[in-house]
Amino acid sequence: MVSAPDADLARRVRVLGLRQRVEACSWRVHTACFALPADRPRHGEVRRRLLLLTGWARDGAELDRLRAAAAELAWVYRQCCDVLHGRRAFTDLPEPVVVSWEHTVDTGERVVAEVLARPAAAPTCSPRRRHHPPRRRR
């Protein structure tokens, strides 16, 4: 049997893995949208990069599904950061919470992989070229 401190440490390591998986999802979405390489994501950028996923929506129902998937991944990312940086009210993380987060990340990874695997995987709202504003006439 695993002692309580060892089990808590193992859950925290799993939480770290979840955080890295969400960061990888946001990086994949970002690189699919833009030709420029992505830097190491910061806390706020992960959510914004995940929301780029909504650019692939074909209709309103799919827009809602992609927005929900991005929001759930961003929420799990924030919770993982709170656990890893000690911003949680409890010190031991319950096993069912970690399992539910793993399920959410698994679902989000499947959605990201499905959307990015489409034949024309360029969203309509994503600039692949640099935007040049119109010149002023004199």
Describe this entry's structure for a reader.
The protein is an all-alpha fold. The protein contains 4 helices and no strands. α2 (43-51) packs antiparallel against α3. The chain is elongated. The termini are far apart. The model has no long low-confidence stretch (mean pLDDT 81).
Summarize the structure.
The chain is mostly helical and 138 residues long.
Keywords:
138 residues, mainly alpha, 4 helices
Secondary structure layout plus pairing:
Layout: H1 4-33, H2 43-51, H3 60-84, H4 95-116
Helix pairs in contact: 1-2, 1-3, 1-4, 2-3, 3-4
Termini gap: 80 Å
> Percent helix among the residues?
55-70%
Q: What's the β-strand tally?
A: 0
The major pleated sheet works out as: none
Low-pLDDT runs of 5+ residues are none
What would the average pLDDT be, to the nearest integer? 81
Q: What oligomeric arrangement do these chains adopt?
A: single chain
Task: Please indicate the percent range of residues in DSSP E strands (runs of 2 or more).
Answer: under 5%
Which structural class fits the helix and strand makeup? mainly alpha
| Radius of gyration, in angstroms, nearest whole number | 18 Å
Number of helices: 4
